[in-house]
Amino acid sequence: MATLTASEARTVYDAITEPEVFWRDVLGVEHLFPKQMAIPASVRDHRRTSVLGANGSGKDHTAGRLLLWWLAMYEKAKVIVIGPTFRQVSDIVFREARVAYQQSKFPLGGL
Questions:
Q1: Are 23 and 65 in contact (CB under 8 A)?
Q2: Radius of gyration of the chain (CA)
Q3: 61 located within any domain
Q4: Among 40, 55, 76, 93, which is disulfide-ready with 19 (CB 3.0 to 4.6 Å)?
Q5: Domain range spanning residue 41?
Q6: What would the mean pLDDT of 51-64 be, rounded to a whole number?
């Protein structure tokens, strides 16, 4: 596994507390709709967050990246992902997390 340079490590560290910065500067997400960005901001700022949205509105995309951000932000975190079906979690949300992890600008290690 590649290690981070001091500059890369600083970029990741500085971005951890701000999900929008983490997604842009670490995960390389180029564009999020305001409603998509409201989800991690709510998770950061509130104890509970509920998300309602139509099919294809980016909820799974957001959930996969939110999972990575949460693990980066809280060193000893455990993330539990639930959904209406096993397929929804394993084939969709976890796939989104894998894609974001593999395409990140920096090696994220074991998060």
A1: yes
A2: 14
A3: yes
A4: 40
A5: 6-102
A6: 86
CB under 8 Å to 25, separation ≥6 — which residues? 11, 15, 105
Residue with tokens 């999972």: 67
Rounded to an integer, what distance in angstroms lies between the CA atom of residue 48 and that of residue 56? 23
Considering the entire predicted model, what is its pTM? 0.83
For 16, other C-beta atoms within 10 Å of its C-beta total 14
Q: Which residue has the tokens 């998509």?
A: 36
Distance separating alpha carbons of residues 104 and 41, to the nearest angstrom:
20
Question: How far apart are the C-alpha atoms of 17 and 44, rounded to whole Å?
Answer: 8
Q: Where are the beta strands (DSSP E) in the chain?
A: none
- CA 3 – CA 96 distance, rounded (Å): 24
Whole-number average pLDDT of the chain: 87
Both structure tokens of 24: 């842009």
